[in-house]
Amino acid sequence: MLLDGKNAIIYGGGTVGTAVASAFVREGARVFLVGRTLATLEKAAERIGGNVAIAQVDALDERQVNAHTDAVVEQAGSIDISMNVITDTDIQGTPMVEMTLADYISPLITAVSSKFLTSCAAARHMIKQKSGVIMAFGGSVERSPLMHDYNFGGMEVTFDAVESMRRQLAVELGRYGIRVLTLRTSGLVESIPLDYENREMIVESFKKGTLTGRTASLEDVGNVAAFAASDWARTITGTEINMTCGTAVD
Length: 250
Description:
This protein is α/β, with parallel strands linked by helices and about 250 residues long.
């Protein structure tokens, strides 16, 4: 198994967090799944099964994040993987010039703050053990044709900010054997609520922008995340893993 004996903290018990946690458990990892809503975490744990523990932690609360991270290390002995996939509270569908400042920068504040806190909390322990993997989900979207079709609010600037943080962390932590990566997709159809306005149009646009006529599934995300977190990917750091099915061609 790719992650046998590894300990992973995943922040966010929604669709992506559950998919990644399921893949990690399947590959032998011990997963600590955390989020703000206990009921959501309990449902996720039921779907995942296996070696998963849940805890109510606000990824925007420095004290809570640090206390939980310390507790995991005390209990499990190490933190080998940290991945933050909490919701960034972005608002889409409104032209930028019609948005309030608060709505536009909301995802930026949430994403940068939470990823700073969770990454630093894990890194402090990973530095001591001289190993570890820190992963984000999203990636830059400036080359995507979708940006010409929809009003994405502060999403693009948020992704760019997180990528800047990822590059900085990769450079500063690489000397300690810590890898820092981003998993990038062109959009997850399964994450769009069935009653979301213009859902079908968005889904078709996602598919149309790819070279393969399909987008990454949640299962794909889990599988690639498990590979990226494993020693099989030990040479990959400081970069995005492109899962856009050709939407972004490097």
